[in-house]
Amino acid sequence: MHYSTILGIESSCDDTAVAIWHRGKILANITTGQEIHQDYGGVVPELASRAHQSHIIPALDKALKTANIAVNEIDAIAVAQGPGLMGSLLVGLNTAKGLAMSLNKPLVGVNHLQAHIAALYIDNPEPAFPLLVLLVSGGHTQLILVRDFMDTQLLGSTLDDAAGEAFDKAAKLLGLPYPGGPHVEKWAQSGNCRAFPFPQASVAGLNMSFSGIKTSLLYFLQKESKHNPDFKSKNLADICASYQQSIIDYLTGKVNKAVNEFSPKTIGLVGGVSANKALREAIKNLAANHNAECLIPSFEYCTDNAAMVCMAGHLMLKYGGISGLDIVPYSKNNSKQ
Ligand code: KG4
Ligand code: ZN
Fold this sequence. Notes:
Layout: E1 5-10, E2 16-22, E3 25-32, H1 45-67, E4 76-82, H2 86-103, E5 107-111, H3 112-122, E6 131-136, E7 141-148, E8 151-157, H4 163-173, H5 181-188, H6 211-227, H7 231-234, H8 236-262, E9 266-270, H9 277-289, E10 293-295, H10 307-319
Helix pairs in contact: 1-2, 3-10, 4-6, 4-8, 5-8, 8-9
The protein binds 5'-O-[(R)-(carboxyoxy)(hydroxy)phosphoryl]adenosine (KG4) and zinc ion.
């Protein structure tokens, strides 16, 4: 069976997203963010699921209008099943189930992390395998070896905070808005990235740790501000640049280690933090030094979006299979709860 037109739905955290894929092209990629969390400095799960409820149908309507297709032209519905926030996932999943039932079309539940990887294939449908992927988002940080579209192996992951969390928590300490990554990056652009040294966690192998760097920033700010209350505001650009560089050096060190071990033909960078320009440059340089190809999604497919869900759904339908209408969301990776 060939599925030409796939509707994708993503609602695992605080972005309500609907996209439409048609024969290898993304015809619509609608993402509605939730500003309500800014006042809290982080995502409030209950508020997120309520906002998804009010955003999902307008996002669906907008996607259909943008793609200029009627709802009954959809051949299959793909939806992020997990990992993510339970209440948030339920909104997307139940909308997808309702569509699948009423249109009598297949439903396919996809893994949110696999969808981030699938974002690489939207503009590069035939990558050279093996592909080493660095996945850096607000909830996960992983190194994955992809031997073929459906053959992935987890090589290492963070033992505590995710890289995106390290950006977000630093932003909070520095008085910058949530989500912090883009704000830290903006300030970093005019700063000296070697102004202040931030220590890197020593973790064996390809696992990682990011909770220490945030704590070291906290102690550093407390120490410096004691004698100089304006320290933070006067040195914001240098602090952001040094902190960002420390995370980039740490990530590239781990990628380098994995490249030496597995000799991938392609290196991919995905997840929300892959929108960071300095990190993109660092990974591009690393790949060039190893004569590997470098794939990074265009900006619209880095942070949470539904185009990547369409792409993952397309691969599942091609190589895997459809899901039953009784699938349930899962909050953690590799778990059914
Ligand atoms: O993949 P994503 O949209 O959601 C999750 O699945 O978690 O990633 C969101 C994360 C947030 O932590 C955000 O601060 C970070 O990606 N992020 C960035 C940038 N843009 C988003 N971090 C650093 N630099 C950026 N430009
Ligand atoms: Zn994500």
